[in-house]
């Protein structure tokens, strides 16, 4: 009787501590340069490290351990037309343009410059669509993203990575609108273009697969999400190495999928490894690391692994205290 009461008390305590640290994942966007990590074609994607997106697109941490990934999945083309994939793209993977990620000319792999009336319209439509998107004006944004796709095909060619970027932008819009039936074929076509342009093992393909995995996980299509993350992880391990934070990012998301599939031990191992990589990279006090620790604590709590949950929660509180110094 005493043990049951003690266990119940500890469980309530942990739940209270976790609830006070509930994450609000504010989706943020920025434009990054495209050189080493994105493709040489300067097609543009957007991730969450810049100005804040409006309240209508903010997401909250789900107490049932379901991860909503609007910010991480977002791939919206920015004003500069430069490419940045997903979240956790490290600074060392983004070099080669100006400090603001801008680039005046859109270059293809042979070094030539594509510039015509269609590419000019593509840039204008994309920039305006992005602004509407960030303002929550999705109807206006959709019309311009559709036009941007057509202009990209006319100006760059139907199989050019710029078209993949335009398709991804439109797909992301449909994802936000929860029009998944329209979004999925666009995501898949974008992945196919990148595979044809750069090869199945290219890092840009991995980043696109990661985003597709997040699209699937929002719909609870766990097998499809698992396959995307697993493919992306293999590519990133080969290209970036096993100590890279972007490799750790995909590892973490694969771990969350495995948990939702009921593979708890595999899930915990992947999440713990992803946390270790962040810590060894000097990011042990980062928002990403805290998010993963909180998720891990909730996994332990839901599995009645109270001692492990408390240890993780103590670590979180220690990090928070240290970050105040």
How would you describe this protein?
The longest helix has 19 residues, at 2-20. Helices cover 61% and strands 4% of the residues. It has 325 residues and is mostly helical.
Give me a quick take on this structure:
With 325 residues, this protein is mainly alpha-helical. It has helices at 2-20, 70-73, 117-134, 138-156, 161-176, 180-198, 203-218, 222-239, 245-260, 264-280, 287-302, 306-324, and strands spanning 24-25, 28-30, 47-52, 59-60.
Biggest sheet overview: 2 strands, antiparallel
SS-based structural class? mainly alpha
Instruction: Compute the separation of the termini in Å.
Output: 43 Å
Instruction: Tell me the β content.
Output: under 5%
Helix-strand blueprint:
Blueprint lengths: L1 H19 L3 E2 L2 E3 L16 E6 L6 E2 L9 H4 L43 H18 L3 H19 L4 H16 L3 H19 L4 H16 L3 H18 L5 H16 L3 H17 L6 H16 L3 H19 L1
Antiparallel strand pairs: 1-4, 2-3
List keywords for this structure.
12 helices, elongated, two-stranded antiparallel sheet, 325 residues, mainly alpha
